[in-house]
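Hey all, sorry for the wall of text incoming. These are the two entities for the joint prediction.
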Amino acid sequence: RKEVEQDPGPFNVPEGATVAFNCTYSNSASQSFFWYRQDCRKEPKLLMSVYSSGNEDGRFTAQLNRASQYISLLIRDSKLSDSATYLCVVNTLYSSASKIIFGSGTRLSIRP
Amino acid sequence: ETGVTQSPTHLIKTRGQQVTLRCSSQSGHNTVSWYQQALGQGPQFIFQYYREEENGRGNFPPRFSGLQFPNYSSELNVNALELDDSALYLCASSLGQESKNIQYFGAGTRLSVL
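and here's what came out:
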């Protein structure tokens, strides 16, 4: 079993739709969680950190469920510019040594 | 722009050769992480350097090694290149080693091994 798993997609949805991604992780000691966005042939860029209480940034909402060990990302009113690969990231600190695990990414394509 | 720069942008090597990739971190950032990203996959964590010491390592063999310099720039060295080492190599800088710290990525070095 992979340490961090995502549905690879692709998700192909019309503009204006709401789309949700989930990401599961296996290490219950993981401490920090993020969603990054990666455009084709570009570097990953932070979309948002994920906090235990859940957090929202405009059309984007991220949630963390520690009991079930998953994080989610909800995109409302999707735009053409949201087309990208969305990567979930799980970061664990072991006695001051870091281990940073990326999921394999979920591809999202927004159609007009 | 993240302020993280990597060089070179592209590189072609042959099997068995050695390669050095370079990364300059964002100003003020003392932590650099290196990743390998194969086509269609997420970045795979190679290792992290914090204040010139290796501070965590993923599942990569010893022929992947690194350095961090006093100015916090970093190098990734790969010896005895294999065809499967062909990938995009990304570095990311952050402030401190805490797990909650956000990483800022450079544009990457695309390595092709023939």
